[in-house]
Amino acid sequence: xKKEELEQLLSDKARIIEELEHELExxxxxxxxxxxxxxxxxxxxxxxNIDVIKQLQIELADTxxxxxxxxxxxxxxxxxxxxxxxxxxESILTxxxxxxxxxxxxxxxxxxxxxxNELFGMNICTLIxxxxxxxxxxxxxxxxxxxxxxxxxxxxHKNGIAFPIEFTLGKPVYxxxxxxxxxxRDITERKxxxxxxxxxxxxxxxxxxxxxxxxxxxxxxDTNDAFATITGYEEAEVFGKHPKMLGSHKHPxxxxxxxxxxLLQTGAWRGEVWAKRKNDEIYPIWLSIYSVKEENNVDTTHxxxxxxxxxxxxxxxxxxxxxxxxxxxxxxxxxxQFIEHLKWSIDVAKRDNKKTALMFLDLDRFKWINDTLGxxxxxxxxxxxxxxxxxxxxxxxxxxxxxxxxxxxxxNRLHDEQEAGIVxxxxxxxxxxxxxxxxxxxxxSSSIGITxxxxxATNVTQLIKNADTAMYYxxxxxxNNYQYFSHSMNQKVLDELEMETNLRQALKNKEFSLxxxxxxxxxxxxxxxxxxxxxxxxxxxxxxxxxxxxxxxEKNDLIIMIGDWVLNxxxxxxxxxxxxxxxxxxxxxxxxxxxxxxxxxxEKVSQVLIDTKLPSALLELELxxxxxxxxxxxxxNTLGKLKKMGIRLSIDDFGTGYSSLSYLKRxxxxxxxxxxxxxxxxxxxxxxxxxASTIIAMAHNLRLKVIAEGxxxxxxxxxxxxxxxxxxxxxxxxxxxxxxxxxxxxxEIKH
Length: 751
Ligand code: C2E
Ligand code: CA
Ligand code: CA
Fold this sequence. Notes:
By secondary structure, this protein is α+β, with helices and mostly antiparallel strands. The chain has 28 helices and 27 strands. It has an 8-stranded mixed beta barrel with strand order 19-20-22-23-24-25-26-27, surrounded by 4 helices. Strands 1, 2, 3, 4, 5 and 6 form a 6-stranded antiparallel sheet that branches. A 5-stranded antiparallel sheet has the order 8-7-11-10-9.
């Protein structure tokens, strides 16, 4: 190798080295530069980082603060929640998928009776066995409430007692486990309330008592079924109406005011009320009213009225009352009740300035019916009479039976006394329809005495006495009639003993006289007979009716003595007139039943005829229907003998008693005398008309004459003539005459 070349090479190398050195230097410088740059850069970045860190540190501190706050908040919230849980009335618990209880609040312990330790890990089914049944539903994802299809669900207390519960199942996601939360409520109280409500509703609807509820404005807002049954009103018909629409007007206004006052004061009222049904029927109810108060116990919210129809109870009560106050045979008021009513009637009449009439009523010849047909028939008759009497008066009047065949009637609120007479007539008519007894038609009649408050008397005792007196008068005044009391009557009624003494004295002192009532042939108008009627003029009391004294005389032998005197005197006077040249006229003498029973009647009568020389054909004897039937066989015998003597026989008061047709045929009688009670109303009363016609037809059938007594006017006479009645007697043709007046009459019709 060449030097040059070498040199060159060396130079080149040196240069390269130089160059490299230079380059290296330059690089180093670059590095330094770079390093410097880098250092600069790094410093800059560090500064920046520090800022970030600082910033971050600040931020971190802030975050920590926030976290701290959050932590505090969280703690508070947890406390809050757990306190809510702790204090919740509902029992809240959670349980796992397998039913194991995990958490619970104190209410659970309280409700089920287990302590905390016992509850942990317990199966929910121990507390609520039904959960077994709903287990499948627990797989659903949603919350479930108590399944509605199930009946009441029960929780079981540690002590074994079951109680109704209600629950809600929730499924919160908690710690990503399947866990259920159940809220349980004890619904014992609610169930009880519901039960009570149901019971109330049942009572309300099922009650046989009517229930009506009103608001405080007295508007009906609710009623039950029984209400409709009892009142007849459907709820819709009464809704919103005032309950007064259910009342009757049977109570005075202050009665309702009293109820209202008591309701305000005590909140309740109960008592008996007369109510009115939809069909206007008045009926008694037992009513209880209560006010329903707000819980504060002050403000009334509603009124409840509960009532029952006590018609039947009332009638049971009445039955009891009936025993004490009513006659068990007829159901009419008895004496006790009668006296009470009479007192009451007098009070009311006094207050209202009205009149009250008292009637005494006695059946004619009841004793005879009772004796002949038996007591059973007698009872039946009394019952029938009670019915007819009740039907003849108004509801405000009182019909009573005092004893036997004695009835009384109190007629209330009369304007004038004549009204009592109208009622009496109605009663007489009602009694005239024959009663069917023991297969026979029995005719009854009655005698009625009437007295009026305050005209005749103002006290109970006097009124009763008056009515009795008047009845006595009516009875003896031909029966089947009514008489008003008059003070003269009272005077004339003497007590038994006094009457007897007075009658004996009358005979001795010649206080008796005779009157003669003319009897005519209805066709020829010819005078054909005279009925002999006894008169008694008491020295102090004046004339006393035979209807009053004859019954007294019949109680002892006085009637015999009096009867003898009548027969004797009548026959004697009759002969005296004949001797004086007057036309001989048949006389009819009334014979009492007692006289008929005398064993020596026949001898006595024939002796009189012998003594007075009166032709027997001019003597007629009048016997009443009852007297004849009393002992029919004996009567037939006696009558036969009288008949043989040529004496005429007549049946008096015919139609008022009970006559057996078969006997009638066997009595040897000549005449039937239609009782004046049938003649009285013959022109107005169809029944009387029919009875008179029947008697006339029957008499003619039996070939008997018929005489009508008590003919008071032309119409009656015409009607009787049309019916073919033979003879008549009565005020229209001639009043009973004194001997003096009779002789004047006889003188006028000289033969
Ligand atoms: P009697 O035998 O039915 O007599 C008829 C009664 O009716 C008589 O009443 C007579 O005055 C009355 N009278 C007559 N015509 C009419 C009339 O047109 N209208 C009205 N309203 N009455 C009339 P008197 O005289 O008061 O006699 C009553 C009863 O006393 C008699 O009813 C009779 O039962 C009885 N009696 C009268 N005298 C005797 C007698 O001497 N012996 C007996 N045993 N009883 C007698
Ligand atoms: Ca007579
Ligand atoms: Ca008569």
